Amino acid sequence: MAFGPYFLLASLEGLVTAAVLSLMALGLSLVFGVMRVVNVAHGEFYMLGAVLAWWFSTLVGGHPAVGFLLALVLSPLVVAAIAFVAERLVLSRLKYEPEATIVATIGLLYIVQQLALTFYGPEARPVEAPFNYRISLPWFGYSAYKLAVIGFSILMMIATWFVLTRTKIGLVMRATQFDRETAQAFGIPVGRVYAGVFALGAGLAAVAAVLIVPIQQAHYLMGHDPLLLSFIVVIIGGLGSLRGTVVAAVLIGLSDGIISMFFSPTLAKMLATLAVAMVLVFRPQGLFGTVAR
Amino acid sequence: MAAVTPLLVTRDLCRTFGGLRAVDQVSFSLPEGETHAIIGPNGAGKTTFVSLICGRVAPSSGSVVFAGDEISRMPAHRRVRAGIAYTFQITSVFANLTAFDNVALAVQRRLIDDRARGLSARALTEQGMDALTRVGLAEHAGKVAGNLSYGHQRLLEVAMGLALKPRLLILDEPTQGLSDGEIDNFIALVRQIGAEATVLLIEHNMDVVMALAERITVMEQGRILAQGTPDEIRADNAVQQAYLGG
Amino acid sequence: MPGRAEGGVTRAMANRIKLTPSAKSLALHAGVVLLLLALNFLLPEYHRGVFARVLVLAVFAMGYNLAFGYTGLLSLGHAMFFAAGLYGAGLTVYHLEWSVWPAFAAGLAAGTGLALVVGFLALRTTGVAFMIVTLMFAQVFYLTTLYFTTYTRGEEGLVLPQSSRVLAFPGGALNLSDPSTRYLVALTLFTLVLTVILFLVRAPFGRSLVAIRENDERMRMLGYNVFANKLASVVLSGLFCAASGAAYAVLFGYVGSGFAAIQYSILPLLWVLVGGAATTLGPLIGTLFMFYVIDTASSYTTAHLLVVGLVLIGVILFFPKGIAGTVRGRWLPWLP
Predict the structure, then answer these.
(1) ipTM for the complex shown
(2) In chain B, what residues touch C19 (CB-CB under 8 Å)?
(3) Which of A2, A244, C166, C229 is the most buried (most CB within 10 A)?
(4) What is the CATH number of the domain that holds B236?
């Protein structure tokens, strides 16, 4: 294949990564933005979403789309419910003290990972895509499902943006983010808002995971790399900024796709991680955003 | 005992936050040994101004000269060692350490630099207790600072400043939140300190200002509105209108 | 008049304020070391092996404790300092056929140098950003060990030949693969680091670190160079972690990427939290406790990660001060 088409292919793959990554990073960013805590277990919610997607899809027979749609609806709900319970049982009791929360979510990470290993096993399992159409481009064929993933992610982002900026739920969340004490004084149930945000963040990770399982397989260790990438996206995009998150996800997704063309994946990861660490050291407000308060 | 050069001089000192000029071209001079009060309405830039002097905030432009040395680019911790001590407006003690350990940290820092005397447990104890005694907290030395009353925590702040044996002690609203009886003690304490060090005092309580200050600077919107002895300030019409409320 | 009380109070305080450990705490720590020495001759073979490993890893935990417990720096990247020591010693033994002393020194140099660079960069950030930056630097280090798999053999790792693991002295040599020798060498390193930390925390430097943890802005306005003190803490912490890693390489003869992975950044955090952050004996207690908890759990279930997770959450929820911290809070306030 000539360089041009090859580059196009890499860019398309990069966009798919970016689409999934922005959903996942958005979840992390929301939790950090509103609750001011870092959820280290975010990658495990993603993994859980994928594993549950596999399980739900095996429950029903018939056309693969049925199983997939069932997973797309139920898996995020179950993951969100689990996150809600974890928030109420653990994080709320820690008073959202940042370092204690980090330690607790590390604990959560291990627990979820171990449960997945015990009940799901060490195998990687695929979920069949809801449709199997290939779009023929002049140079290569490309999976229509992958393009659909990009489209669906954009829809989800718009929906999230709408909820955050145009609805009462969004208003309550922003009020809580802006000033917790005042929000409480105005009768906003801050505890429930926090639990809701935590559940929403986990749910977004699960949606991202369901979208990815027809492309990558579900595996109990799959949460690790996306977690790091999400950290990177959230940092580069500026914490708590929706637009920054999307731009950063596209940037990271594309460069991930393109850099891997020229370097070994390990070297690409090394350089990217080092670069982002340096961004955080020298420009802690991110490349686009301003310091979140 | 008038010094030839003032202890502290600022020239055209500016600091902007975003578009706001918190401190606007302030030229100010403080002779050694003076007790000087800065007054002005909230948001006049008083705390920003002293923060520029002690180095907690970097200036946008202008210069700060302390004891003849240009210090506007010097990091805060080195300014402290050069002799500028700052007590926080919002009480900022080490809440989990004892009152003595709080003061000992200040003494320790000074003794590290004191080549002649050197750092020893004995010197640490003596000088730490000395500072606590001066503010009247000796009997609370072993108590955890966070458990002290608010008034005692304010005094502990001052004791930490004293323990540094500064040439210039900056007190940022030291009497805020104190009872009348505590304020009287405080006035006596600052008078004592003023006998040996230069004191720069931000204060809202006019009784305290009039009782202590040899000279007063009135700030408004980041600028110096007036400067003079307490009597002159009391008589100043502009000040009357702007601040003292007629 | 306050002046009257001065003399009496000063004299009373003079007996209490010391810059060196009290006789009581020196006796306690000497007792712990003697007990550990006796255990070398009393423990059955299997447990002696476990204890030797715990002693080496407790040094790792003590190093982590210096940064996290005393200075309040939550790092999620300390595996890189441990692994730098491990590889610094292991690779020089394996590829350059260095003897143990210079290899050990190479491990220390690698870890300390790395800590200096990483500390210099990462300490520009605080709090959560510091955690993420250290995590990322450690990830880069881990990926580096994988990338140079020709030399490191990645996850599979290298086994150092027994013949190279000999500690030469002017009067003879110690065979480090002998269980008793290994235990005693591990104990020696542990005792050395424990002693340094015991004296350090009472010394002005240690007091400064704790005060920086409590309120760094106030420390700055007392004239302390907060950055330099934090950096010194990170470098010393890196040195201890590297010592642990280098000792691990020459005592147990295995060097692998697994030790650079994120788990080995989280484990010292776990050990220190369980044992008690900012206590001298907490790291040992925590490491020992977790080793046996996981050991016991492993005989019932393979799900030892579950145990780690539950203990982490349980400790942070119900015993945030850890074992030694709780003992100090309730019964022995003089415990360092």
Answers:
(1) 0.90
(2) 119-121, 124
(3) A244
(4) 3.40.50.300
**Where in C239-333 does DSSP place strands (E)?**
254-255
φ, ψ for residue A283, nearest 5 deg: -140, 70
Q: What is the pLDDT along chain B (246 residues), one digit of tens a residue?
A: 444 678 999 999 999 988 888 999 999 999 999 999 999 888 889 999 999 999 999 999 999 999 999 999 999 999 999 999 999 888 889 999 999 999 999 999 988 887 777 788 888 888 999 999 999 899 998 899 999 999 899 999 999 999 999 999 999 998 888 888 889 988 999 998 998 899 999 998 888 999 999 999 999 889 998 899 998 888 887 777 766 554
Contact list, C221 vs chain B (CB under 8 Å):
54, 56, 76-77, 80, 85-86, 88
Residue A243: left if φ>0, alpha if ψ -120 to 50, beta else—which one?
A: alpha
Q: Name the residue among C10, C217, C224 with its Cβ closest to that of B92.
A: C217
Q: What is the domain extent for residue B25?
A: 1-76+200-246
Q: How many domains does chain C divide into?
A: 1
DSSP for A225-247? Answer: HHHHHHHHHHHHH-TT-HHHHHH
Whether B194 maps to a domain, the answer reads no
For the CA atoms of chain C, what is the radius of gyration? Answer: 21
Inspect the interface and report whether the beta carbons of C207 and B105 lie closer than 8 Å.
Answer: yes
* pLDDT tens digits, B67-115: 999 999 999 999 999 999 999 888 889 999 999 999 999 999 988 887 7
pTM of the model: 0.88
Residue B112 lies in a domain: no
Q: What is the count of structural domains for chain B? A: 1
C236 lies in a domain?
yes
Domain span at residue C99?
22-261
Q: Is residue B2 one of the residues assigned to a domain?
A: yes
**Per-residue model confidence as pLDDT tens digits over A108-134:** 999 999 999 999 999 999 888 888 888
Q: Strands of chain A (E only): list them.
A: 134-136, 141-143
A259 vs A17: CA distance, rounded Å: 13
Identify whether B104 is part of a domain.
no
